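hey
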């Protein structure tokens, strides 16, 4: 999965004494151009995440520490810079879908870009205090935004969501889906965000019923992964069909929902997602 980046070592502990070097990764993000998949990241023309040595004239004060990878501190360039508006000075904008599909970018850098994008959105969305409207400032003690007027402290929030492998034990089949209204054409699973006042297990039952009209039982935890493009932690479950296997598909959410045998399961082209990991576990007979 995307966060499994061994032997690389990721450390997101806050630092107020981060060290900027020529090898520091610098993350820059542009305006959203793919509403369903986040936004755009700045790469070099040879499809690399830029290092500090790739820039000229960048003010150190415009860089915000993000995290550390393999002992090397990484930063976010929060100020808008006009040279990134076109293919000039060695930089290009590329959508996250493009970044995800570029094979030359190491897997751990995919993970770092997604995590950096999550923090970028958090900084951007909390420029002003939601309580009094004053402009916020960076905390010097922790990863937080502080309102100097009313004293409100704002921390990053993570949104829980589930992805669900529904298994028909009698016929030894799994329910696979395809999203409606997206250009993501690969098979996926029932999924959705947890509502206020709802447990993860209740989310599993509700999403299964809403998207496919199926009742489920024997809900069991499988694993989890961060998914920073939509600020969430994705929690994977597998469960068993409870009753009729007749599907009543929500056409607004799904363009396809059907039962597949282990041999018929077609996996996604990369191993980055928890959804694909669940599908693979079924295909290989592990669940």
């Amino acid at each position: 999965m995307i966060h499994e980046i061994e032997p690389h070592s990721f450390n997101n502990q806050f630092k107020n004494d981060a060290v900027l070097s020529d090898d520091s990764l610098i993350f820059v993000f542009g305006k959203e151009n793919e509403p369903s998949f986040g936004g755009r990241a700045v790469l070099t023309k040879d499809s690399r995440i830029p290092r500090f040595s790739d820039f000229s004239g960048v003010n150190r004060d415009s860089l915000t520490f993000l995290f550390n990878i393999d002992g090397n501190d990484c930063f976010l360039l929060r100020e808008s810079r006009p040279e990134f508006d076109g293919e000039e000075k060695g930089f290009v904008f590329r959508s996250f879908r493009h970044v995800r599909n570029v094979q030359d970018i190491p897997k751990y850098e995919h993970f770092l870009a997604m995590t950096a994008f999550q923090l970028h959105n958090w900084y951007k969305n909390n420029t002003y205090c939601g309580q009094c409207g004053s402009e916020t400032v960076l905390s010097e003690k922790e990863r937080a935004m502080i309102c100097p007027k009313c004293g409100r402290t704002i921390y990053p929030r993570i949104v829980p969501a589930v992805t669900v492998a529904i298994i028909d034990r009698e016929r030894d089949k799994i329910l696979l889906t395809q999203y409606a209204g997206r250009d993501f054409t690969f098979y996926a699973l029932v999924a959705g965000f947890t509502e206020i006042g709802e447990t993860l297990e209740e989310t599993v039952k509700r999403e299964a019923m809403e998207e496919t009209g199926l009742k489920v039982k024997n809900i069991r935890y499988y694993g989890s992964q961060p998914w920073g493009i939509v600020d969430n932690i994705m929690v994977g479950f597998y469960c068993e069909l409870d009753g009729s296997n007749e599907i009543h598909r929500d056409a607004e959410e799904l363009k396809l929902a059907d039962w597949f045998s282990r041999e018929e399961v077609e996996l996604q082209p990369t191993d980055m997602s928890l959804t694909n990991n669940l599908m693979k576990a079924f295909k290989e007979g592990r669940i």
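The helical segments are 96-101, 107-125, 200-212, 274-283. The longest strand covers residues 216-227.
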